[in-house]
């Protein structure tokens, strides 16, 4: 079955999600450093597909920045806002009162935990961006999210990678110098 092109139906992808609440799973937490040397904690979340909502399997990114003048409590969590780190753990349902050896151990326990985030839009350098404004406990604590598969068996492949390569064997053949040709058009 064929189709007819219709440019009136052409949709441009939008990477910005509408403001509102999203049920997510924390996919990854990692420390990063910007080009300017500012350290931050990047939280990558996947929008759950086991909850009826838009943008299922899409990603939301949240960033916590190190404090310029950290308190003693902030220094316990490598200079990030202690209150922000605790709010993140509370929203993800980590147990209250548990002791952690390091921020890395704490962040490791966050992975695959559900939580609900609120997205707001803000202007930055003339562009509208989404920002996580609130982190709350999930309304759906039973997680049945199925991770998105990167490849499917039913997809039609338009280009196939080469399955095997000739082994690199040493040959005794030398290279032949190509004659220079000043008449080439390029």
Summarize the structure.
The chain contains 3 helices and 5 strands.
Describe this structure in words.
- The chain has 186 residues and is of the alpha+beta class.
- It has a domain at 16-136: OB fold (Dihydrolipoamide Acetyltransferase, E2P), CATH 2.40.50.
- Helices cover 12% and strands 27% of the residues.
- The chain has helices at residues 72-76, 82-91, 103-110; strands at 20-33, 39-47, 59-65, 114-124, 127-136.
- Strands 3-2-1-4-5 form a 5-stranded antiparallel β-sheet.
- A hairpin with a 2-residue loop joins strand 4 (114-124) and strand 5 (127-136).
- The two termini are 44 Å apart.
- The model is unreliable at 164-171 (pLDDT under 50).
H/E series: EEEHHHEE
Low-confidence stretches: 164-171
Rg calc: 25 Å
Cα distance spanning the termini: 44 Å
Structural class: alpha+beta
| Approximate shape | globular
CATH class of the domain at 16-136: Mainly Beta
Mean pLDDT: 84
Looking across the biggest beta sheet, what order are the strands in?
A: 3-2-1-4-5
Helix content: 10-25%
Determine the CATH topology of the domain at 16-136.
OB fold (Dihydrolipoamide Acetyltransferase, E2P)
**Largest sheet: number of strands, sense, barrel closure:** 5 strands, antiparallel
Q: What is the CATH architecture assignment of the domain at 16-136?
A: Beta Barrel
Tell me how many strands there are: 5
Our count of helices gives 3
**Which strand-content bin applies to the residues?**
25-35%
